[in-house]
Amino acid sequence: MKLLRLASLAVLLLIAALVVRSLRVTTDLSYFLPEGNATSQAESEILRALSQSELSRRIAIAVSGKDENQVLEATKALKIALGKLPLRLSSGPAEVQELAAELFSHRYQFISDQPEQELPVLLGRDGLRALIDRLKETLGSPAGSLVREVAVKDPLLLSSRMLERLSKLNATSLTSKEGVLVSEDGNAAVLFAVSREGAFEGPAQAQLWSQLDALFPRISARYGNVTIEASALARHAVSAERSMRADMLRVSTISTVAVLMLLWIVFVRLRYLPLLLLPLGAGFLVGTGVCLLAFGTVHAMTFAFGSALIGVATDYPVHLVNHLVLERGDAAGSRRHSYIALVLGAFTTVLGLLCLVWGGLPGLREIAVFGASGVSTALVVSLLWVPVGIEPGDRVPPLRHLKIAEICGNAFNWLRSHRFAHWLVLLVACVVCALGLPQVKWQDDPRKLTTLDPTLALEDSRVQKLVAGEEGAELVVLTGLGSEQQLLKANDKLALVLERAVQDKILGGYSSLHHLIWSEELQARNLDWIRAELPEGAIKRALEQAEFASDAFAPFGENGSALRVSPLRLADLSRRSYQELITPWFLSLAPGKRGLLTRLRGVKDPVALQRALAEMPEAHYMNVSQYQAQAYARFRERLLLLLAGGLILVALTLLLRYRAWRPFICSLVPPVLAGLTASALLALVHQPLSLMHVMGLLLVLGMGADYGIFFVESLLGQATVGAPSLSVAMACGSTVLSFGLLALSETPALRAVGQMIGLGTLLGLVFAAVLSAWLLKDTRREQVA
Amino acid sequence: MGKHSNSSAARATALSAVPLLTRRQCLAAALLGPLGATSQALAAGEPNCPASVREVLQPFSKLVGLRVDFVEEKRILLLKKPLVNRGSVVFMAPGNLVRRIDSPTPSAVWIRPGQFWVRDKSGERKLEVARWGPANILVNSFLYVLRGDVDALNKHYRIALTCLGGAWKLELTPRASELAKIVRSLRITGQQAAPETLELVDGSGDTSLTRFGKANDQVRYTEAQLKRFFSSPAAKP
């Protein structure tokens, strides 16, 4: 045994070294996304790419004040200060205006999406006349001087079509002044920045926002109290994380004190504390190490839920201490059953968890591996080390310890002798289930799991109103295409489909890279048509007929130079500020794979839009928030299914062990009934259930089964029920105090976990006690073991 | 004014269509068209030539409101024949002016302090005059004229006053080269105290000659009426 202990210590030290050396925590969204299905896979890739894209890393900072000068000065100072932070300042939408002038020479390549159909009408004889008449009208209007200069080279005003499209690229009402984007009234300016780290990279974003939160008041104070506000996805994530951390700290402080008090009240001897914590620590360490070995990283959610799962392991040392101290561990039968209870409890928990490995969800697999290895370790460490900590003098328990065990035993015996209590409890549970379960509503929107700071939300909407470029959460992403030109060609086709959807009032509008650049093929088709079908003489004749001095015009440039322009490529727009207009449209999917996104506005009929897009298998229509909700729902459904599968395995194991229906029911039914009743109770108080409730259920099932097993094994192995009753009551009490108190949290996700675990474990204890008291009255006589 | 908020598409189109220089020219044309519309305010009955620029401009500041019809002849070098616009100007002190073209193609501009609205076939849009350095001077020049602020005008223009037989001519030539790129010269002519024409020669050599009809300086418009006059081509002044 001593050798085993030393070996376990060496293994733990080795794993600790591994964890310290290679611990990598991630917050990757793919954790929640399913594997296998090709469509889901593509959508998961898109979602992951979006979470890392510039779109999600963008920060809009608005500076507003009394007048333009004050605003400009403050904004310039802010710009300099921001340059020292880990973000990249982006020049913003005003670059479109400069780009327009640069694109002028390509005006004959960007006339029509469907040149073969549209150009014969647009530039036929009647079409030319209409265009020249429009020029004349424009020259006479207040905007006449705007076109006076370009008209010489572009009498058909074809460039205006490009400009109209470009303006859709980034719809905004901001204009550029002194290198700063200012609002129409000049009383506000906006800076755009892109953070280096992804929006969900918690620590990096937390650091960035604490720097920004300190910087804004400094600049404001220096420049006459200008108002500086910001809008960014990451800011909400950081705020939610801060509030969650504060909540956790508050609740965990209270629960730690409460659990310590519970242990002191019962055990009196505080030196048992390390014995209770050692299995937990070892389980956590080994869980982390195994995950690192298996997956290379550990997800933050695994730590959260995995740790909760390993919380089951608290029961093992508590049970052992009670057994060794109260029952003196000397009755062979009692000792055997105590150890069987522990092993069986841990085995059923591990079995249930391992079912999650085959669920096809990376997140569940990680939690399962973490939990299973952690729980197993906690059991082994408990069995090896807890007896070492019990000194010979401890065999005489303190009076209070004995007294409390006696109270627990008496309570169990009271239950045994009052059959009406069994019926009453079970009847109430059945009624609650019958009334509540049909009313269960699922809330799968991940945004509802965190609390949005109302002040930040208001600030966000003020900044977005100023920027006025915000689109909805709907996107179309082109994927599965190799080259840039293939992507652009598909984008041309997509634009046609979306344009039709706009005309059919299915869609309000869209922003796309198509508004800036087309595929070389489409550009060439436009230019080819002009070269073949539109002689310069035809334009000049139309000008003459409209009483223009045709000699003053040179529509095709000197010697037709305007028609000898090469197609515009993305590489031609290499200026950094232009690249800033281009790169946000591209998504980095898997290595070497790129996607091209189009942002949609006002989708009125998503089904019709999906139908319209059916002809393009490479186009994925996505409503990001809806997709996230669907992913969470799928995750939850799969988890419930796997839990059911795990329960069947646990049931088989228990059946194999007991081979009698009474102990089988006593160990299996309490957790199931507790989970159902807790869900029904929450539904009755109109609390929608979420993924977090289901994660809580995982713990309830794990612990509830253990309670039943502890009762059954104790009753099979000994005459007194004091020690096992106390063990189960302490396990339940510490769980309720550790996790149940989370129900008081302000964060919906934590509250959900707390509600389910708090209610579930409490009910699990009650049902385990009631069923054991009822069904195992004559256990020893039945000789089931 | 929110109602006039243009679509960003139209705005970007207008702003990006041509270099800044020609934007300013447009503004100059739109702003300076109504300069001579203050003729009735000068109807002091003085038969002789005004003695100074100050004497010509001083009565403008007393204007409260007026309406005047005009005919504008735009000679654009690209066109063989001039374009002729007919319309009206409505002015309300201290700083509201709408210049509306009724034919051949309806359009309008509305000038308020620091704001410049345009309406044409493509819709209504606001242009930020305060941002366009020299163009801003042109807007202010108009205000200087209305205030009779000769000193301010002198700061930006060389002003020449000539008079023959009671017919006077003010010729304003920009001092700064930036301003001169937008407008080569401005000529305001009048008979005794009543301005009759305004001629603008822009940077490209195109000219715009506006002849003013008889003005009514008794009109009083509310802002809502002005807005309607600007927004609706059918609204009667």
Verbal overview:
- The complex is a heterodimer of chains A (785) and B (237).
- Chain A has 785 residues and is α+β, with helices and mostly antiparallel strands.
- Chain A has 30 helices and 13 strands.
- Helix content of chain A is 64%, strand content 8%.
- In chain A, strands 2, 3, 4, 5, 6 and 7 form a six-stranded antiparallel β-sheet that branches.
- Residues 780-785 of chain A have low confidence and may be disordered.
- An eleven-stranded antiparallel β-sheet of chain B has the order 6-5-4-3-2-1-11-10-9-8-7, with helices on both faces.
- By secondary structure, chain B is an alpha+beta fold.
- Chain B is built from seven helices and eleven strands.
- In chain B, helix 2 (20-32) packs parallel to helix 4 and helix 4 runs antiparallel to helix 5 (150-156).
- Chains A and B meet through helix 5, helix 7, helix 8 and helix 9 of A and helix 1, helix 2 and strand 4 of B.
Write the layout of secondary structure elements.
The complex is a heterodimer of chains A (785) and B (237).
Chain A: H1 2-22, E1 25-26, H2 38-52, H3 54-57, E2 58-64, H4 68-82, E3 87-90, H5 95-103, H6 115-122, H7 125-140, H8 144-151, H9 159-169, E4 175-177, E5 180-182, E6 188-195, H10 202-222, E7 227-232, H11 233-267, H12 273-295, E8 298-299, H13 300-310, H14 315-326, H15 332-354, H16 362-389, H17 399-417, H18 419-436, H19 454-467, E9 474-478, H20 484-503, E10 507-511, H21 520-533, H22 536-545, H23 576-582, E11 586-588, E12 594-603, H24 606-612, E13 619-623, H25 624-658, H26 661-684, H27 691-717, H28 722-738, H29 748-775, H30 779-782
Chain B: H1 8-16, H2 20-32, H3 53-57, E1 65-75, E2 83-92, E3 96-103, E4 107-112, E5 115-120, E6 123-127, H4 133-147, H5 150-156, E7 157-164, E8 167-174, H6 177-182, E9 183-191, E10 194-202, E11 207-216, H7 223-231
Antiparallel strand pairs in B: 1-2, 1-11, 2-3, 3-4, 4-5, 5-6, 7-8, 8-9, 9-10, 10-11
Helix pairs in contact in B: 2-4, 4-5
